[in-house]
Amino acid sequence: MQETSSKRVVEVIFDSTYRCNARCSYCDIPKVVRTLHKGEEEIPVGDIREMLKSKYFASLFRFFISGGAPAIDVLVNLQYFRLHGGPYGGAPEPTYELLERLSVPVLIGFHLYSTEIEEWRSSTKVNPLEVVLGAVLPELDGCIEPIMVSGLASLCKDESIEGEVKEGRSIPERAAKLVDRALGWVNLREKVNSDKKVAILLYDYPPGEANIGTAGYLDSLASLEIFLKKLAENGYRVEMPPGRLSEVLLSEQGTKNRLPE
Length: 261
Hints:
Elements: E1 10-13, H1 29-36, H2 45-51, H3 56-64, E2 65-66, E3 69-70, E4 74-77, H4 93-102, E5 106-116, H5 117-123, H6 128-140, E6 144-158, E7 163-170, H7 172-190, H8 220-233, H9 245-250
Parallel strand pairs: 1-4, 4-5, 5-6
Antiparallel strand pairs: 2-3, 6-7
Helix pairs in contact: 3-4
């Protein structure tokens, strides 16, 4: 990714290949891949084994942490599932440890593995399982802003497998948007807190004073007041009204722009 003026670092995690190097006797995919690529493998099995000699998650710590301090400013995750867990196996705690030590935004580059790009362009619909694997599970780690960057494109019908051959292709304008968002987060981290702007939305449904900021078993308005005070303590420009915040929000002044009941 392009460098910023202050030489900030944006790290990208991605799979080395989406093509299967297994040799299951009942599967024709390797044969189709060799046919399409004139007998050449994308990455030989031996090379993949060498890359995996070092444990996957240990490699993340090695590349992302330098001298005990974070070596990156933003992380872009282009993989499905969770960072530690899912197909990699293991509990999620190592992920929490890594992300706490990094303390950087982690953005999601979302892939479509079963939906064709043209199908998505015409309907903006995706397979629910794609959403779970590509967006929901990474969000459990704390990843944010899932932006779709690739999908499938049909190549041809293949009679030998009695099916259609498809390949993954990037969507340039979506990839560019992900780059812009990553660099935007870099720029935001460079700003002092007094120059940042934060928008806070309160739940209010059905519309009415009794439902402003409602939440199950939580005093959300009291929590909001604590949150705003914490922002002020950390350099944000916050003007707190006199008295309890909940009383101000529920007053005529605080609800004058609310929709009528």
